[in-house]
Amino acid sequence: xAMDYVGLAxxxxxxxxxxxxxxxxxxxxxxxxxVSVSWRPSAEFAGNVYRGEGIVPASPQDxxxxxxxxxxxxxxxxxxxxxxxxxxxAVSDTVSVCRTTTPSAFMRIISPREFVDVVLMKxxxxxxxxxxxxxxxxxxxxxxxxxxRGFNYPCGCFCIPLPGEPDRTQxxxxxxxxxxxxxxxxxxxxxxxASIAGFYSNLTKAVKALKA
Length: 212
Description:
Blueprint: H1 5-21, E1 27-31, E2 36-41, E3 48-56, H2 60-67, H3 75-78, E4 84-90, E5 95-102, E6 113-123, E7 129-135, E8 148-149, E9 151-152, E10 155-162, E11 165-175, E12 177-178, H4 185-211
Parallel strand pairs: 6-8
Antiparallel strand pairs: 1-2, 2-3, 3-11, 4-5, 5-6, 6-7, 7-10, 9-12, 10-11
């Protein structure tokens, strides 16, 4: 039977909304000038869900331009954790099935990964832009021999406008990833906070370059 891609995408977006509204149980694990990272045990798999929150010095439109999950988007250029991103199937004008590959990381302890996700993009009434994703299977994406297949559980980003501050955006992001393979938990637990800090730092550089 065909997967209900739209239903799965909407379910992931609902989870994002729940995470956004639920302040309880998060434990801080890393803070930089750009982001504060916290985590709590995931309800979806035997790992953690990570929450990144920071203010990006750019308009919500510019931030969204840099992070939106689209073919030939800017993200592959600035996000060191995204090597390649392709849209496998456009399900509707807001939902698509995408394949992302990541380079080796953490001094090559983490080998290249591939992820197949259904992604939903939408704009909320308050002007917030949201992308939400979760892992799916797709007939055009059998596992590739040179990659370990990882799995994203409901994850995504909110670009939230700040009233009266058109050139600043609150970026709230949730990462919930089973990297797959046989990685020591200590490696996984150190990788994500560092990776999220890098994501915010590189995004800040990317929006500055976009405006330049």
